[in-house]
Specification:
The protein has 20 helices and 27 strands. It is α/β, with parallel strands linked by helices and 607 residues long. The protein has three domains: 236 residues, Aminohydrolase, N-terminal nucleophile (Ntn) domain (Glutamine Phosphoribosylpyrophosphate, subunit 1, domain 1, 4-Layer Sandwich), CATH 3.60.20.10; 205 residues, Glucose-6-phosphate isomerase like protein, domain 1 (Rossmann fold, 3-Layer(aba) Sandwich); 153 residues, Glucose-6-phosphate isomerase like protein, domain 1 (Rossmann fold). The strands form five sheets. The chain has an eight-stranded antiparallel β-sheet, with helices on one face. Strands 5-6-7-8-12-13-14 form a seven-stranded antiparallel β-sheet, with helices on one face. The chain has a five-stranded parallel β-sheet with strand order 19-18-20-21-22, sandwiched between helices. α4 crosses α5, α7 runs antiparallel to α15 and α9 packs antiparallel against α17. The longest helix has 21 residues. The chain starts with a strand and ends in an 18-residue tail after the last helix. Bound molecules: fructose -6-phosphate. The site of fructose -6-phosphate has 14 residues, from α9 and α17. Fructose -6-phosphate (F6R) binds next to α9 and α17.
Length: 607
C-alpha cells in the first residue's frame, strides 16, 4: 500500500528518493511523487509507475532534503492532484502521509470556513493546511499541534522551505523507520527502502514524533516528553531481492519454497526427541499444558494458513482451536479467555486489521504471539513474542512462499504443544521426520509440476472456476481460488466439497471448471463422491491428488499428482503448489500484471 521515503544529507535527494520509491513499488500503488527543498518546495507528481515520475524529475533539480510517496488511492480517485506530496496554500510546507485521517471532513470544513482553498479530494490535504495554521517558526511544534485534533492512522513526513536540512516525521498506527548513515539520514515506511544505504535503524512507535537532520534525530512523545529507542541492526533478509533468472517475482518465490521451508524448519524440529522448539514463544511445559484454547488470527492467505494451523492444534495437541479473519475478530467484542493463546499470522507484519486484532486481545488482558515474516515489523513488535517464519523477502503481491512457511511454522508449534501434552515420542518422531522431508518433496514437485498448461487452458476459458476440498484441503481450495482471482482476475469460488450440493452445484453446467483437492487421506473417498456429483452435471475437473492414486487420476480431465504425505496435516504444503502455478501461468496467458495485480497492495496498512 502507500509508501514513504525521506532523505537528508549531502547527496542530491532526488535519485535517493526515486530509488527508495522503486523499492517500495511491490507494495502496490497507483501514483507517486516527491518534494525537494531547493530554496522553495519543489513538488513533482505523476499517476502510474515510479518510472513516469522519474522521467518527469529534472535531473538538474538540486535539493539535499526531500520526501517521496507512492499512493494507493483511498480518498479521491487516481489523479495527479490527489497524489502526494500535498502542500499548504503558500507552497512552503509539503506532507506525505500513509494511513487514513478519519475526521478529515470535519477538519476540512473548518479550514474552508477560514478561507483555505483545497486542491485535492484527499483526507491528507488537511495536514499541510493545519500545520501552516499552527506554524510559528518551529517545525516540530507546528506538526505536533496540528496532530492534536487528528483522529485516525498516520505515518507522515513533513518538510518546510524555511528549514532546508530538516524532516519532521510522526507515527500513529502506520509504520515508519529511520536509518542512520554517515552524515546522512534516511526515512521510510518499510525497511526494504533502506536496504543498501544502512542497516542501523530505529522504528518509531505510535504517538511519537521526531526531528530528523543529516546528523541523526531527536525523538519525542506527541504529548511532549523526550525519549529514545536503541538502534537496531536491520536483518540480512531485509536486503533487496531481485528476480534473478525468473520472469516474475511470483515464479521465483514459488521456486524458492524448498529453501524457505528449510529455513523455517531447521533447528526447530528436534527429530531425536520427536518434538519441536520455538524459543520465541518463551512458554514453559507447564504454560503449554495450561493453554485452554488457541485462536489464530490473520487476513487473506495468512488466514488460510491459520485454518491449517487450527486443525493441526486440535489434531496433534488436542487443544480446542479456531482461525478467524482478523478484521471481523477485532470488532465483534470477543470474549478473551486469559488461559487462551492467540497467534497473529502475517507475512508483512503490518496488516492494519491483524494489528487491530492483536490490540483487541491485549486490551482484554489476553496473550498473543506473532507468526510473522518481516523481522521488526509492527505486529512482531506489538506481540513481543512469537516465531519468525523466515521465508525471506516476498515481493510479489500474491503470497506463495509465505503461505507454506506459515503453515510449516504452525505445524511446528502444534508438534511442540502436542508432544508436551499428548503424543508420544514415536508419533512425534514420525511427524517431525516427515515435516523435515517436505522441502525435498517440494523441490521434486516444482521441478516437474505435471500438466499445468492443460489446467491453465481449462480455467482461463471458464466463466468462473470452483475449488473444493475437505478438512485442511478446504483451506487449500480457498487459497487456490484466492490466487487465481488475484493474479488472473478469474472469478472463483471455494467450498468445502460436501457443501456443493447445498446450493452452489446449481451453478455447475457443461464445461464448468472444477478444481478438486484430494490428497489420499481419510476424506479422499468422500471428496471423490463429490467430484462424481459435479461430473454428472457436466463439470470438467482438475484433480490434485497423491502420486499413485489411480482412482483419483481416472476421474480427472486433468490429473495433477503431488508427492504423497502420510499425515494429511502436511498435505497442504504439497497440494497448494500446483494451484500457485496454475494462477501464475493463467495470469501470464491472460497478460495480467503478475507481480502487481490491479487494485491490490502487498502491505494492507489501512482498515
Ligand atoms: C494474498 C495476499 C493477501 C495477504 C493479506 C494479509 O495473496 O497476499 O491476502 O495474505 O493481505 O497480509 P499479511 O500476511 O501481510 O498480513
Amino acid at each position: 500500500m502507500c509508501g514513504i521515503v525521506g532523505y537528508v544529507g549531502p547527496r542530491n535527494a532526488a535519485p535517493v528518493l526515486l530509488e527508495g520509491l522503486r523499492r517500495l513499488e511491490y507494495r502496490g500503488y497507483d501514483s507517486a511523487g516527491i518534494a525537494l527543498l531547493d530554496g522553495g518546495v519543489h513538488v513533482v507528481r505523476r499517476v502510474g509507475p515510479v518510472a513516469n515520475l522519474a522521467e518527469a524529475v529534472d535531473p538538474q533539480t538540486a535539493g539535499l532534503t526531500g520526501i517521496g510517496h507512492t499512493r494507493w488511492a483511498t480518498h479521491g480517485g487516481v489523479t495527479e492532484d490527489n497524489a502526494h506530496p500535498h502542500v499548504d496554500s503558500t507552497n512552503r510546507i509539503a506532507v506525505v502521509h500513509n494511513g487514513i485521517i478519519e475526521n478529515y471532513a470535519a477538519i476540512r470544513a473548518l479550514l474552508e470556513e477560514e478561507g483555505v482553498h483545497f486542491r485535492s479530494q484527499t483526507d491528507t490535504e488537511v495536514l499541510p493546511h493545519l500545520i501552516r495554521k499552527f506554524y510559528r517558526g518551529d517545525p516540530l511544534e507546528a506538526v505536533r499541534a496540528a496532530l492534536q485534533p487528528v483522529q485516525g492512522t498516520y505515518g507522515i513526513a513533513v518538510t518546510f522551505a524555511d528549514h532546508p536540512g530538516v524532516i519532521i516525521a510522526a507515527r500513529n498506527g502506520s509504520p515508519l523507520v529511520v536509518g542512520k548513515g554517515q552524515g546522512e539520514t534516511f526515512l521510510a515506511s518499510d525497511p526494504t527502502a533502506l536496504a543498501g544505504h544502512t542497516r542501523q535503524v530505529m522504528y518509531l512507535e505510535d504517538r511519537e514524533i521526531m526531528r530528523i537532520t543529516a546528523e541523526g534525530w531527536e525523538l519525542f512523545r506527541l504529548d511532549g516528553a523526550t525519549i529514545s529507542h536503541a538502534l537496531e541492526e536491520l536483518a540480512e533478509e531485509l536486503t533487496w531481492s531481485d528476480k534473478g533468472a525468473f520472469q516474475h517475482h511470483m515464479l521465483k518465490e514459488i521456486h524458492e519454497q524448498p529453501e524457505s521451508l528449510r529455513r523455517c524448519l531447521s533447528g526447530r524440529v528436534v527429530a531425536e526427541e520427536g518434538g519441536a522448539r520455538l524459543g520465541g514463544f518463551d512458554l514453559s511445559t507447564r504454560d503449554i499444558a495450561n493453554i485452554s484454547r488457541v485462536g489464530i488470527l490473520g487476513c487473506g492467505t495468512s488466514f488460510h494458513a491459520g485454518l491449517v494451523g487450527a486443525a493441526a492444534m486440535e489434531q496433534l495437541a488436542r487443544i480446542p482451536a479456531f482461525a478467524e479473519i482478523a478484521s471481523e475478530f477485532r470488532y465483534r467484542n470477543p470474549v478473551i479467555d486469559p488461559d487462551a493463546l492467540f497467534l497473529a499470522v502475517s507475512q508483512s507484519g503490518e496488516t492494519a486489521d491483524t494489528l487491530g486484532a492483536v490490540r483487541e486481545v491485549q486490551v482484554k488482558g489476553g496473550r498473543v504471539m506473532g507468526v510473522v515474516n518481516v523481522v521488526g515489523s509492527s505486529i512482531a513488535r506489538a506481540c513481543g513474542r512469537g516465531v519468525y517464519v523466515h521465508s525471506g523477502p516476498e515481493i510479489a503481491v500474491a503470497s506463495t512462499k509465505a503461505f507454506t512457511s506459515q503453515v510449516a511454522a504452525l505445524l511446528v508449534a502444534s508438534l511442540m504443544f502436542g508432544r508436551t501434552r499428548l503424543i508420544g515420542a514415536d508419533e512425534g518422531r514420525r511427524f517431525g521426520k516427515e515435516l523435515l522431508g517436505v522441502p525435498e518433496l517440494v523441490a521434486r514437485y516444482v521441478d516437474n509440476p505435471g500438466p499445468i498448461d492443460r489446467a491453465v487452458d481449462m480455467v482461463a476459458g471458464g466463466k468462473y472456476v470452483f475449488f473444493f476440498g475437505r478438512g485442511v484441503s478446504h483451506a487449500v481450495a480457498m487459497e487456490g481460488a484466492l490466487k487465481l482471482k488475484e493474479v488472473a482476475y478469474i472469478p472463483c469460488m471455494s467450498y468445502p466439497a460436501a457443501e456443493m450440493k447445498h446450493g452452489p452445484i446449481a451453478l455447475i453446467d457443461a464445461n464448468t471448471p472444477v478444481v478438486a483437492i484430494v490428497p489420499d487421506d481419510v476424506m479422499r473417498d468422500k471428496t471423490l463422491s463429490n467430484v462424481q456429483e459435479v461430473k454428472a452435471r457436466g463439470a470438467r475437473t482438475i484433480i490434485v491428488h497423491s502420486e499413485g492414486d489411480e482412482a483419483s487420476a481416472a476421474l480427472a480431465d486433468v490429473s495433477i499428482p503431488v508427492p504423497r504425505t502420510r499425515s494429511s496435516l502436511i498435505s497442504p504444503l504439497l497440494t497448494v503448489l500446483p494451484l500457485q502455478l496454475i494462477a501464475y501461468h493463467a495470469g501470464l496467458a491472460l497478460g495480467r500484471n503478475i507481480d502487481r495485480p490491479r487494485n491490490l497492495a502487498k502491505s494492507v496498512t489501512v482498515e
